[in-house]
TrEMBL record:
Transmembrane segments: none
Protein name: Glutamate-1-semialdehyde 2,1-aminomutase
Keywords from the named record: Cytoplasm, Isomerase, Porphyrin biosynthesis, Pyridoxal phosphate
Alphabetical list of InterPro entries matching this protein: 4pyrrol_synth_GluAld_NH2Trfase, Aminotrans_3, PyrdxlP-dep_Trfase, PyrdxlP-dep_Trfase_major, PyrdxlP-dep_Trfase_small
Annotated Gene3D superfamilies: Aspartate Aminotransferase, domain 1 (3.90.1150.10), Type I PLP-dependent aspartate aminotransferase-like (Major domain) (3.40.640.10)
Length: 446
């Protein structure tokens, strides 16, 4: 088994350079390792299930660029599509065929989506979707759930997941209080709280936005009936339902979370709008929002809600996204399921053997481990876990050549390129990491 020392001199040298010119040395906060300590690894290449860092060490990658790399790194067909697209030109600032083909692929996969608009990031997708919902309904309030993350949109940062959870922030400085007042934050999976807020303020609520199955406070799937309640209550009050599938989209199934929960989950009908990102960009900056044609018709140039982007529908990004989706076949989803089964079973057995309290939660091929007893159903229960135990586990895995998300509040991601050799490397590292977690486990109030 690979064993690496904890210090990483080449990464540290790059971090020192980065710190001089970039806040925290990183371009997205969770990457900085602040929640687990130590030196973030600066990667130089990725191939299949592996990443190689600046010190020449190879890691099994269980981050997969936070979800997009569903086929693994440098997948030959995606690489070829990108190379061909780049040969034809980098950006046209005009419509081009790949944009149409990618939109057609999304519409074909997610049945309720009639039209999409392409953007460059998940943040842009959610920001645009809530503007569209406000324009369509003529209302201003937005309901979101604690622990859900929808990108760094001002009004959606309240009690958000991901880095906001990792660093235990209530929200973000720099968001005007008037804007924060337009957002109502509710506990996830709490139907009475939802009904109560709609009974009081339903006529002013433009939309409820939810992660289709949250993965930014760790993985916390909706309890049976919760998604149906979201649809029922929003429909009763004339508000839109926005399902944020930036993380789950095209990963949990061909049609994302909707493909798993589908009509049965939504019961009274599909969401009005969806947001997508990550997998549909194949590792490049492409994202989308879409849904009902009558709502999408409100967008400029056909309607009064303005939304635009210089690089939206970029030909290289759309080529990568299209090639990725075209290769996300049934076999890919079968393999993602097998890898997830093997890893979640292995993690559970190793932690059981070491006597470490834990619960593993999963949504398709997204999963995470909470170092605590009992199911996690919302942000409060997600926070009541032993973060130092996670940090010890994380570092032991890293020293053994397995790259996990550097936060207890993030999903782990696998790819279809995780073959048996890569899975075995992870499984071999688990007993030592479980022992490290056992040693670190502290008694906390739960
Ligand atoms: C559910 C969800 N929505 C939105 C976003 C924002 O996407 P991006 O980071 O591409 O802006 C993310 C991830 O960051 C996400 O996980
Ligand atoms: N949880 C985030 C997105 O899903 C992680 C990506 C980031 O913010 O860097």
């Amino acid at each position: 088994m690979t064993a690496y020392p904890s210090d990483a001199p080449a990464s540290q040298a790059l971090l020192d350079r980065a710190l001089a010119v970039t806040p925290g040395g990183v371009n997205s906060p969770v990457r900085a390792f602040r929640a687990v300590g130590g030196t973030p690894r600066f990667m130089v290449s990725g191939q299949g299930p592996y990443l190689t860092d600046a010190d020449g060490r190879e890691y099994v990658d269980l981050v997969c660029s936070w979800g997009p790399m569903i086929l693994g790194h440098s997948h030959p067909a995606v690489l070829e599509a990108v190379q061909q697209a780049a040969t034809r030109g980098f950006s046209f600032g005009t419509p081009s065929e790949n944009e149409v083909a990618l939109a057609e692929e999304i519409v074909a996969r997610v049945e309720p989506v009639e039209q999409v608009r392409l953007v460059s990031s998940g943040t842009e997708a959610t920001m645009s979707a809530i503007r569209l919902a406000r324009g369509f309904t003529g209302r201003s309030l937005i309901v979101k759930f604690a622990g859900c993350y929808h990108g760094h949109v001002d009004s959606l940062l309240a009690q958000a997941g991901s880095g906001v959870a990792t660093f235990a922030l209530p929200d973000s400085a720099g968001v005007p209080k008037e804007m924060a007042a337009e957002t109502i934050v509710l506990p996830y999976n709490d139907i009475p709280a939802l009904e109560e807020v709609f009974a009081e303020r339903g006529a002013d609520i433009a939309a409820v936005i939810t992660e289709a199955s949250p993965g930014n406070m760790g993985v916390v799937p909706p309890l049976p009936g919760f998604t149906a309640a979201l649809r029922r209550v929003t429909a009763e009050h004339g508000a839109l339902l926005i399902s944020d599938e930036v993380m789950t989209g095209f990963r949990c199934s061909r049609a994302g979370w909707f493909g798993l929960e589908g009509d049965a989950g939504y019961a009274a009908g599909a969401p009005d709008l969806f947001t997508f990102g990550k997998v549909m960009g194949g590792g490049f900056p492409a994202a989308a929002f879409g849904g009902r044609a009558d709502v999408m018709a409100m967008l400029a140039p056909t309607g009064p809600v303005y939304q635009a982007g210089t690089l939206s529908g970029n030909p290289v990004a759309t080529a990568a996204g299209l090639a990725t989706l075209q290769h996300c076949t049934d076999d890919v989803y079968t393999r993602l399921g097998e890898v997830s089964d093997a890893l979640t079973t292995g993690v559970g057995e190793a932690l059981d053997a070491a006597g470490v309290p834990h619960v593993i939660q999963r949504a398709g091929s997204m999963f995470s481990v909470f170092f605590r007893d009992g199911a996690v159903t919302d942000y409060d229960t997600a926070r009541a876990q032993d973060v130092p135990a996670f940090a010890a586990f994380f570092h032991s895995m890293l020293d053994q050549g397995v790259h996990l998300p550097p936060s207890a509040f993030e999903s782990w991601f696998v790819s279809a390129s995780h073959d048996d050799a890569a899975v075995d490397r992870v499984l071999a590292a688990l007993p030592t990491a479980a022992s490290a977690a056992a040693a670190a486990f502290a008694t906390i109030d739960r």
